[in-house]
């Protein structure tokens, strides 16, 4: 009876963790500056969604440069919490050629033995890693039956014991000094899904996260490049101090993002906004520092096709 009660309580906690969106990032201790807090939140998001391949991607800078576009809400109550916009991030990841794991994370049952001693509770490193990657973890009770049935020297044949906890996925972790040898299993496979060695719990979950990201990539459908729209966009009228242009040749979402950045860097341009897009075309509105300014658009990789109409020639 006691075991069933404890199991129910653990599963309830895991369910609550699993219900949290991977697009919601919380820093328990907010950094002193807003910029640092945003950077940390974006780094966590990229690690969750795209794994190690997303580290160092230009996507991070794009999110930081257009914060309001890629976030839904921000709160500083009890730390620093950001709700990112899934609808905006999905095409951004795709345009950068990054895999995206946005689905619900499976709860993982962790069977860990440290130098022959069974471990029935997570330490700080496991809790931190679980929050960082939004992967809920469940720990076995290691009751008398489990101590008798499970070979702690090998941690093999854990399927029956894991299913008593309702686990579909489990980790077998053997720690010797500061080295964690781990194997990830699924109830429908006899052999490990993946395995490795790590120096920390955070690295274990980073590797597990990379596996799931790669698996999602293998299952993802290839999206075609943007094609010419049925009806071409028109530049429309400009107010004083504005320049609206139509650009064609934007075959990927990344082309539009990078062009917006390049236009913003041109001399005489105070700001840039994307008004709308259709197929491989988009309308950009440039706010000029003065009405007399005419920015050199060729420096952004554009060639003229007509009055306020351009083609993107390069995106390097």
Automatic annotation (TrEMBL):
Family annotation (InterPro entries): DUF2066 (IPR018642)
The organism's place on the tree of life at top rank: Bacteria
Swiss-Prot/TrEMBL keywords: Signal
Signal sequence annotation: 1-20
KW Signal (keyword) present: yes
Identification of the protein by name: DUF2066 domain-containing protein
């Amino acid at each position: 009876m006691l075991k069933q009660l404890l199991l129910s309580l653990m599963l309830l906690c895991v369910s609550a963790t699993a219900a949290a969106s991977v697009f919601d990032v919380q820093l328990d201790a907010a950094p002193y500056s807003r910029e640092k807090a945003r950077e940390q939140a974006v780094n966590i998001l990229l690690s969750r969604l795209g794994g190690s391949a997303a580290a160092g991607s230009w996507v991070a800078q794009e999110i930081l440069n257009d914060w309001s576009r890629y976030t839904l809400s921000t709160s500083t109550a009890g730390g620093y919490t950001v709700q990112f916009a899934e609808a905006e991030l999905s095409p951004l990841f795709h345009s950068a050629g990054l895999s995206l794991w946005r689905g619900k994370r499976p709860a993982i049952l962790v069977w860990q033995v440290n130098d022959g001693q069974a471990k029935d509770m997570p330490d700080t490193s496991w809790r931190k890693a679980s929050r960082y990657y939004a992967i809920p973890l469940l720990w076995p009770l290691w009751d008398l039956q489990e101590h008798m049935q499970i070979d702690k020297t090998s941690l093999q044949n854990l399927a029956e014991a894991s299913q008593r906890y309702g686990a579909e996925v489990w980790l077998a972790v053997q720690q010797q000094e500061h080295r964690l040898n781990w194997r990830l299993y699924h109830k429908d496979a006899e052999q490990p899904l993946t395995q490795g060695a790590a120096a920390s719990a955070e690295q274990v979950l980073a590797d597990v996260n990379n596996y799931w990201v790669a698996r999602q990539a293998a299952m993802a459908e290839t999206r075609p490049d943007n094609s010419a729209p049925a009806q071409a966009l028109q530049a429309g009228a400009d107010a004083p101090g504005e320049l609206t242009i139509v650009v064609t040749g934007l075959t990927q979402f990344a082309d539009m993002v990078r062009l917006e950045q390049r236009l913003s860097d041109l001399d005489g341009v105070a700001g840039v906004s994307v008004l709308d897009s259709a197929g491989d075309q988009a309308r950009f509105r440039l706010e000029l520092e003065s009405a007399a300014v005419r920015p050199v658009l060729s420096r952004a990789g554009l060639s003229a096709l007509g009055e306020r109409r351009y083609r993107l020639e390069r995106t390097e």
